[in-house]
Design goal:
Length: 283
């Protein structure tokens, strides 16, 4: 709970700073062609264990990037370092000419049961980042209502988290991440605790949000089918110290549907990813 709360505060404060940077004319219009995130020489150790050693990566802007790799290889650590939630020992993470504090980020935690504030109704959970940004109450309310209407959410938002199903709680978490209109949305295995029907529904919601906003999304997924189905790029990581085993392009047209899953392109891409993954896990 507290880790989640601190993280939320850090992410939302970053957004507040962006507003003032933009007011001062601090946008980077010419940065559109640059990678959204550039990582160079990143080194991260926990105690003596090296998780990343001189690691380089470019994340393209406006793409949905799935991150896939064996347990403990460093997927969560990677997105946490990019999001500024975890420090690193060496290297740099750049945001196309902006400082980390100037970039609006959204983050959906894996464990939705601990990510929401139990004493707040769903509606107030969603608007909480705006409260941290000191957005006045009427505007908070209006923005939250607009987002809920836009996503066509059918949940009673006057309910407390414990009164909602797992899927509904996760939807609230996702809305809380979206309320700040992030440039980059991080999701750490967001659907892993949901049943299959709810997972399918949430995948479609995520795809819809992605198509509508064009934001950069980084999705950690343990489900290879999901990782490929949703992605423009699949980042395959080796065991730690993590290397890029492959960074696979999947350019199938959107919106993707059940038919995508049986397309030749999808089947081949998934088979290739599985091949690389098995080699990395065995190696
Ligand atoms: N706070 C920490 N202190 C010490 N070691 C840590 C800490 N956080 C992560 N690690 C270690 O770093 C490695 C990478 O962890 P991370 O959580 O990033 O893996 P992951 O790829 O997300 O794994 P999973 O698929 O199980 O979620 C693991 O070996 C883990 O034990
Ligand atoms: Mg993880």
């Amino acid at each position: 709970m507290f880790a989640g709360r601190i993280a939320m505060e850090r992410l939302a404060t970053g957004s507040a700073r962006l507003a003032s940077a933009n007011a001062a004319g601090g946008t980077a219009g010419s940065a559109a062609a640059l990678p959204h995130v550039t990582i160079r020489g990143l080194t991260k150790r926990f105690d003596r264990v090296s998780i990343y050693e001189n690691f380089d990566l470019d994340l393209p802007r406006g793409k949905l990037i799935s991150v896939f790799g064996p347990n403990g290889c460093g997927k969560s650590t990677l997105i946490n370092m990019i999001a500024g939630l975890v420090t690193y020992d060496a290297g740099e993470i750049l945001f196309a000419g902006k400082r980390r504090e100037q970039v609006k980020l959204g983050y959906v935690f894996q464990n939705y049961r601990e990510a929401l504030f139990p004493w707040m109704r769903a509606f107030d959970n969603i608007g909480y980042p705006l409260k941290l940004m000191k957005v006045p109450k009427p505007e908070r309310r209006a923005r939250t209502e607009r987002l809920v209407a836009h996503l066509d959410v059918k949940i009673d938002l006057n309910r407390y988290p414990y009164e909602l199903s797992g899927g509904q709680q996760q939807l609230v978490s996702i809305m809380r991440a979206l309320i700040v209109e992030p440039e980059i949305l991080f999701l750490d295995e967001p659907f892993s605790a949901l049943d299959y029907e709810m997972t399918l529904f949430m995948r479609e919601q995520l795809q819809r949000i992605f198509i509508e906003t064009g934001m950069t999304i980084v999705l950690v997924s343990h489900d290879l089918e999901e990782a490929v189905y949703l992605a423009d790029r699949i980042l395959l990581l080796s065991r730690h110290p993590a290397r890029i085993a492959d960074f696979v392009v999947f350019d199938s047209a959107r919106p993707r549907s059940a038919a995508t899953l049986s397309s030749r392109e999808f089947v081949q891409t998934k088979a290739h990813c599985l091949d690389v993954f098995q080699r990395e896990v065995r190696g």
